[in-house]
Amino acid sequence: MSDMPTIKVRDNGPYVVSGPVKLIDAEGNEFETKATFSLCRCGQSSNKPFCDGTHKTFFESVVRANQK
């Protein structure tokens, strides 16, 4: 199960992506990534689509999945 990709929503922070995934732009070009990387969720990163920590000064979002 460790080979299964995961995306974790961090409270007041980015999406943390782990596992074997390809990140592709709108033109089909692949981004170079590491085994675990963070994607911007606040929209203000200067390194989009990756998180650069800018969210720490203003971004607030706590998301929870619905429990069945």
Structure overview:
- The chain has 68 residues and is mainly β.
- It has a single domain (1-59), classed as 3-Layer(aba) Sandwich (Ribosomal Protein L9, domain 1), CATH 3.40.5.
- It contains no helices and three strands.
- It has strands at residues 6-9, 15-18, 36-39.
- The protein has a three-stranded antiparallel sheet, with no helix packed on it.
- The protein is globular.
- 7% of the residues are buried.
- The model has no long low-confidence stretch (mean pLDDT 95).
Which SSEs are present, and which pair or pack?
Layout: E1 6-9, E2 15-18, E3 36-39
Antiparallel strand pairs: 1-2, 2-3
Radius of gyration, taken over Cα atoms and rounded to an integer in Å? 13 Å
Helix content: under 10%
Specify the CATH class. Alpha Beta
- How many individual β-strands? 3
Tell me, briefly, the overall form. Answer: globular
Low-confidence stretches: none
Strand proportion, as a percent range, falls in: 15-25%
Q: Output the helix-strand order.
A: EEE
Q: In total, how many domains does the architecture comprise?
A: 1
Average pLDDT over all residues? 95
